[in-house]
Amino acid sequence: MPLDDQLAAAVDAARAALVEAIDAGFGGAADAASIGEHLGVEPDAELMVSHRFACLTPGYRGWYWSVSISRAPDSDEVTVNDVVLLPGDDAIVAPAWTPYRDRIRPGDLSPGDVLPPDEDDARLVPSWSAGDGEEQTDDRFFAREVGLGREWVLSLEGRELAAERWQEGEQGPDAPIAQQASGVCHSCGFMVSLAGPLSERFGVCANGMANDDGRVVSFDHGCGAHSGARLSRAASSSKLPEPVFDTLTRDEVDGL
């Protein structure tokens, strides 16, 4: 795109327009002293260019003033189109806004916080539809009519997402503690059975000395606190041999 020579040479006119805009209140606490050297000019369109000036306002390192000017094809009069403050390549800018729902992570909720599910959350379905309690199909219509039970239940997708998360998490078979466990949770006397469709794969640990006490564990998870764990002979205490050098008792010397 060709650069109009007359507009490119109108540096003083662009600076004057910038000073006037700042004096009129543009830029908040900025003043004419915040205008630095001329950084260059770029064509925006035919007979339209933008002059760039360094911004010296504290806290705006790397930012620059941009003044857009133009002229009519048959006129030498310069018209000011826009005055803006823009960030440069090395400017300090605020990070892109991330919605609260995308920033929150499991465990972030504090007392009083509210995190409602999405209106179209695929993990939930009405209690009268196919959800987490297929065995209650005969009672769903009646429950819907009289308003009994839960309004929402886990959908089939929500159930599988939970099962996958638990299976692959710290209470699943791939956890380091499970890799060296003395037994799996399915055969542990401290495991409390669940009810419902997930009861065939998961239970709750009830061993107060175990790391997973009160947590959902997969049947193939495990830890050293298994009810059938026993100390091996190598792990039991043994009598230590006599020391090579006795540094604990006092030497007896004749005559002393």
**Main sheet properties:** 4 strands, antiparallel
Tell me the number of strands.
9
Number of helices: 6
Helix content: 10-25%
Pick out the low-confidence regions: none
Q: Tell me the strand order in the biggest sheet.
A: 1-2-3-4
Structural class: alpha+beta
Describe it.
The chain is α+β, with helices and mostly antiparallel strands. Among the domains are: 5-87; 157-225, no CATH class. Helices cover 19% and strands 20% of the residues. Strands 1-2-3-4 form a 4-stranded antiparallel β-sheet, with helices on one face. A 3-stranded antiparallel β-sheet has the order 7-8-9. The longest helix is centred in the N-terminal third of the chain and has 13 residues, at 11-23.
Helix and strand arrangement:
Blueprint: H1 5-8, H2 11-23, E1 35-45, E2 48-55, E3 63-70, E4 79-87, H3 100-103, E5 124-126, H4 137-146, E6 152-154, H5 156-168, H6 176-179, E7 191-193, E8 202-205, E9 216-218
Antiparallel strand pairs: 1-2, 2-3, 3-4, 5-6, 7-8, 8-9
Protein name: DUF3027 domain-containing protein
Pfam families: DUF3027 (PF11228)
Organism: Aeromicrobium endophyticum
